[in-house]
Predict the structure of Phosphoribosylamine--glycine ligase.
Amino acid sequence: MKILIVGSGGREHAIAWKVAQSPKAEKIYCAPGNAGIAGIAECVNIGAMEFDRLVSFAKENEIDLTIVGMDDPLVGGIVDVFEAEGLRVFGPRKNAAVLEGSKAFSKDLMKKYNIPTAAYETFEEPEAALQYLEHAEFPIVLKADGLALGKGVLICSTLEEARAGVKEIMLDKKFGTAGNQMVIEEFMTGREVSVLSFVDGKIVKTMASAQDHKRAKDGDQGLNTGGMGNFSPTPFYTREVDEFCQKYIFQPTVDAMAAEGRPFKGVIFFGLMLTASGPKVLEYNARFGDPEAQVVLPRMKNDMIEVIEACIDGTLDQVDLQFTDEAAVCVVLASDGYPVSYEKGFPVRGLDHFTGKDGYYVFHAGTKFNEKGEIVTNGGRVLGVTALGEDLKAARANAYRAVELVDFDNKYFRHDIGKAIDEA
């Protein structure tokens, strides 16, 4: 099969790496890709939102399957465009990707179908939001309705902070049109857990659990980011928690989308909060998480293409989804200054240490080739260094050992990824 992957980050590198292991994969392309993905796939200089050009490329190169990694093209309707041209594509259609594309939609869906989540209100006018905050309990959470690169969530401890947040989201438009509408919801406390799942429109099959670290600095301090590291599995996601989530969250969500005439095929990322009163949904994403993909896919035993085709064909019930007993830890190497401002273009050294054969992997998030053909930094998040181990402590030790093997100017990373496991 000829495969096209749409995207350019660490998630897409992990997807390409996993797809390349399938005996069905004859040739892999990635649009636009990055310097790391270029080691696996032929990178094509077409942007993820250039749907017409992507369709033309898929037709001209007789692509058998297109896998969409990113949220923007999914929410923008790339799957509908490909399907209209008779092309086989993996991901939710536009009317299903709204599950991630609009927080107001997803909150209303959960309310309608009694799926556990935080109490909330939705606002289209900043004045109404400000008035609501006058009588709210703090801390409180403000969320831009639309896509904001994983950064459109503000946790406000005081009324002053919340007022400033409303201004930031709805008036200053820090997150662009994502802030045209805003959700204000109660602040939930507990362990945050990520569960990715394959969905075929009717059936949901969950992958191994993971736990993210969103804040930029050690000790969960600093600004929200797209994710500074991850580990899988999380010991806090017990069998009892899984049974509850399967019954009251995962399958009900898939059933709700089908009942709304929006059958979901693709990957649903369930962001959960394990509260004192039980698991609740923090958010949905309509694709693989990043860097969740970098810890979950190395543990997956199945042929990626077979699972994806089962999702498209509605035969996921015939798939026995399996994961190794090993643990995985991913530490993101970022450019110092991320997520605000940072320099690019620094050569990356030490990549030759990573062959993947010894349980160490490096997934490229923000890299490119310079004029000399060197791999250089090209983003806030540059690399995801992932390591396996017999348990989480071993995987964590391996990951931090591997972090020292690769270097670039202004390299920055958190030192406490997976530290919570020592408390479990």
